[in-house]
Specification:
- This protein is 63% helix and 4% strand.
- By secondary structure, it is mainly α.
- β1 (12-14) and β2 form a beta hairpin.
- α3 (81-112) runs antiparallel to α4 and α6 runs antiparallel to α7 (204-223).
- The N and C termini lie far apart (59 Å).
Length: 358
C-alpha cells in the first residue's frame, strides 16, 4: 500500500484544489485579441469550406465520447512517487491548455455573434469541444485527489494579446501538434497495452479528431485571408511560430522524460516524430517549413536543454539572489543565441519540398 508520505506533496489553494503551476515561458498561455478586427474579416474567398467545417462541428461526433466508465472505478495509489507527480503535471498542463482554448474561443463566439455569425458559431462549437476536454482532464486529476479551480485560473492568469493573424498561426499549430501528440501516444499504446497506465489514453483516438477539425478550421480561415500567408512577412512569422511551438514542446517533454518512459516512449524520439509530422502538416498552409532534418536543429535544442539544467541547478542553490542572477545570465544569453541560430537556419519552401498545390 502507498502511504501518504510516499506521495508527492503539491501546493494547494484549499484542500484538494491544486495551486496553478507557476507561469514560465514554457507554460501554456492564455490569449486575447482584437475582436473588432476579426469581426470585420471578409471570408468570401473561402466561405464554402468554412461552412462545410461548420457542419462537421454541428454534427458533434464526440458528443457521447467523453464519458467516464468502469475503467476509472479503481484506486490509483500504485501510481506513486515521481511517476505520480509527473502524471499530475501532465494532466494539469493539458487541462490548462484546453481551458485556455475554451476561454479564447468562447469570448470570440460572444464578441463576433452580431457582425460575423459564421465565425461566431464555429468558435462557440470549438469552445464546446475544449470545455469537454478540460473537464475530462480535471476529473482525471480528481482520481489523484486533486483538481484545478478553473474559475480561479480564469482570473489569476495573465493574458497575452496577439493580433488575429498571430492567433491563427499559434492556434493552428497548437491544434495540429495536439493531433499528432495524441494519435502518436494512442497508436503506441495500441501496440503496447501493458504501458497504458491510466485509461485516459483510451480516449485519445477520438480526442485527436477534435484537434484535427479545429486545425482544419484555422487552415480554412487563413486561406480566406490570403494576405497573411503570401508575403515576405508571413514567411518570417510562420518560421517564428513553428520554432516557438516545436522548441517549447521539446524542452518541456525532455524535462519530463520519465513520464514518457512510463508509457514506454523515449521523449526525444516521440517529439522528433511529432515535430516531423506537424511540420509536414503545416506545409499545407504555411509558405515555409523548418529544416528539422538538419542535424543542427536538434543540436541547438539540446544545447538549450543543457542550459536549462544549469539554470535549474542554480535556482536550487543557496546563493544570494543577485549572485544567482549573474550566474544565470550567461545561460539565458546562450539560449537566446541558440534559438536565434535556429530561427535564421534556412527554411524549406513548402511547395517545392512537399509538392503542395494551393
Amino acid at each position: 500500500m502507498v502511504t501518504t508520505a510516499e506521495r508527492p506533496q503539491f501546493d494547494e489553494i484549499r484542500p484538494g484544489v491544486k495551486s496553478p503551476a507557476k507561469e514560465t515561458i514554457l507554460t501554456p498561455r492564455f490569449y486575447t485579441t482584437d475582436f473588432d478586427a476579426m469581426a470585420e474579416m471578409d471570408l468570401s474567398v473561402n466561405e464554402a469550406e468554412l461552412r462545410a467545417i461548420l457542419e462537421e462541428f454541428r454534427a458533434d461526433y464526440n458528443q457521447k465520447h467523453f464519458v467516464r466508465d468502469d475503467q476509472f472505478t479503481q484506486s490509483w495509489d500504485h501510481i506513486d512517487g515521481d511517476q505520480r507527480r509527473l502524471f499530475v503535471e501532465f494532466l494539469e498542463r493539458s487541462c490548462t491548455a484546453e481551458f485556455s482554448g475554451f476561454l479564447l474561443y468562447k469570448e470570440l463566439g460572444r464578441r463576433l455573434k452580431t457582425k460575423n455569425p459564421l465565425l461566431a458559431e464555429c468558435f462557440n462549437l470549438m469552445s464546446r469541444d475544449e470545455a469537454r476536454h478540460a473537464g475530462f482532464l480535471n476529473k482525471a486529476m480528481a482520481d489523484f485527489n486533486l483538481s484545478l479551480d478553473l474559475g480561479f485560473l480564469t482570473k489569476s492568469r495573465k493574458y497575452t494579446f496577439f493580433k488575429p493573424k498571430f492567433i491563427f498561426y499559434a492556434t493552428y499549430l497548437s491544434e495540429k501538434i495536439g493531433y499528432w501528440r495524441y494519435i502518436t501516444i494512442y497508436r503506441h499504446l495500441e501496440q503496447h497495452p501493458e504501458n497504458r497506465i491510466y485509461p485516459i489514453f483510451n480516449f485519445f483516438e477520438n480526442w485527436c479528431q477534435d484537434e484535427n477539425r479545429h486545425g482544419d478550421f484555422f487552415d480554412a480561415l487563413m486561406q480566406a485571408q490570403p494576405s497573411i500567408l503570401n508575403d515576405w512577412k508571413a514567411k518570417l512569422w510562420c518560421r517564428f511560430f513553428l520554432l516557438s511551438v516545436f522548441a517549447t514542446m521539446y524542452l518541456n517533454d525532455v524535462q519530463r522524460k520519465d513520464f514518457y518512459a512510463a508509457l514506454g516512449l523515449d521523449a526525444r524520439e516521440y517529439d522528433k516524430l511529432v515535430i516531423e509530422k506537424t511540420n509536414e502538416t503545416a506545409a499545407r498552409v504555411f509558405p515555409v517549413m523548418l529544416d528539422v532534418n538538419n542535424p543542427e536543429f536538434y543540436a541547438g535544442l539540446e544545447r538549450c536543454i543543457e542550459n536549462n539544467e544549469k539554470l535549474t541547478a542554480i535556482a536550487s542553490s543557496n546563493a544570494p539572489g543577485l549572485i544567482k542572477f549573474f550566474q544565470k545570465l550567461p545561460h539565458y544569453l546562450s539560449n537566446g543565441v541558440e534559438l536565434l541560430k535556429l530561427y535564421f537556419m534556412k527554411p524549406l519552401d513548402s511547395v517545392a519540398t512537399m509538392g503542395v498545390v494551393r
